[in-house]
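Tutorial handout. Part one gives the primary structure; part two gives the three-dimensional structure as tokens.
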Amino acid sequence: MTRRGQKKHLKRLPAPKHWPMPRKEVKFTTRVIPGPHPRDHCLTLALILREILGYAENMREIRAILSTGQIKVDGQVRKDARFPVGLMDIIEIITSGQRFRVLPRIGGGLRLVNIDESEAKFKLCRIERKLMNRGGKVQLGLHDGRTLLLAGNEKASKYSNLDTLKISVPDQKLLASIPLEKGVQAVVSRGNNIGIQGKVFAVEKRHGTHASTVTLEDPAGNRFQTALEYVFVVGKNKSEVNLQIEGGSSE
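Part two.
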């Protein structure tokens, strides 16, 4: 008999390398369900509760925590241990009052950064595509799978791919937009320089086979280049979110 639907299990050895878990102690781990983030660029709620926060030791305890509705992602209660949590997502644990934002980690993978209640009310999303729907309204597709319709009086020319939007969660109201341009603050979300933060020094957009690049300057004054699609804008003159440099103070 053939299998119907996708597999519900995943062996630990071929799981994404950035997942923080022992590979040989146990054979299987949770498989990511289809959601806002691809498997290679996310963590499951099970991994976060068990391996990172240490709130549970096994899947039975994880299911017990989630079944009570104590965990929110971007303001919405999530009860599936396999739900994918990715870049800029906000995790809230109601009983403990802890709140975290998911950010890229230097060297690869993702990390959790503590945030306060006021910062947990908004999220930064990057525009991945812009199109017009059948009703004649401009629709923005964001990096976490959500879409945003612009109001009739909004000028579509104000928004471009790879710009960042500041939206409220969970009601998804547009609060502000930050274009990808020289002088803004950004973080590298993928590639060899993942997790490095700095100011955009130059943007070079090329056509054809030549890749577009962005030059960034980190707080120490070092400059480096990365691919245009790896850059995530986080603020104009300063970051809108707590980036909390690894091993140091926050900016």
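Part three, for discussion. DSSP finds two helices and 19 strands in the chain. The first strand starts at residue 9 and ends at 11.
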